[in-house]
Amino acid sequence: MPFQDQDYVVMRGGQILAIHGHCHPPEHLVGELVFVPSATGDYSFFGTPYRKAYVAGGRGTSERDREHIRFPTGTCFDHAHPFSAKSLVPVSQIDLHLSAAVDPRAEAAPGSFLYEYAEAHLTELTRILGDAMPKTPLGLTGSARLLLKDRAVQSMHDYDVVFTGGPQSVGLIARRLTDYGQVHKEARLHEHGKGWRIRLRTSAGILCPFFRYSSPADAPISGLTAAQTLLQTVTVSGRVIEDAHSAYLPTLLAIVPERTSVSLPGEVDQRLLVLVSHMRDRGDFFIGDRGTFTGALCHLGTPLGDLQVLSVVDGSDSTLDTPPWQHY
Predict the structure, then answer these.
(1) What is the phi/psi pair of residue 173, to 5°?
(2) Which pLDDT value is given to residue 58?
């Protein structure tokens, strides 16, 4: 089975990575180091204690400061700004692949906490999404995926559901989730210092959706062939004018720049692509919203043409300036 966004892989050294995005160097994977073996860890997977790799002192660390595993790939990924806060690992170093394309109701033990937890969340999703609910089974990532067959599990912070689809169907789902939070104040989630538009509180618990392309070729930077940093630190505030890829990882938006920290080249001063490589803003931005982004202006080469993008890698470097919930 091919590796896809939000799948998990276990390295030979026991480290667990979440695969990120749909753009990878040949024979390598881009991902985030999420769990590492630790005798004092609070998690247990496959009979081994683990700790979260991106938490220090009880708080999440910035993407730049997180632990990484980076093998040289001999490609532009080694220096490309959008991947500077990611791990790069050879496929040859992987011992186990756990696909997110799994129906938890088919894999979890009937009657177990995780089976009932999945059933409750999927029932709520069906109610919330209505006719936008996919007919095919939804996937699962996060800790629940790693613990899916563990009957000892009795609690879970959230349910990390995975939708697979093209920009049109995914955009509709993201909008339905956001609209539900607009109307139902009790469903709005404030966590980690922000309001989340597509994450919801329901009677089943906290719902945390992820989206991946049904065809990886639809990912805007799929097949990346070249990368060059043009300007190192640029801050831009502007209005979103294109949001077809706003729910995916990485998030791609087009904005009209309204305020900039430096003069932008003529070809992007009226329409600027913003590529957000961290996961904290997926689904936050829709057409008409305003945001502020800090990153590096980059030239990226792809099989479908060259792009100039503002590459944002850290969660603290992008802000939704429009209130997440309006009019209600």
Answers:
(1) -65, -45
(2) 65
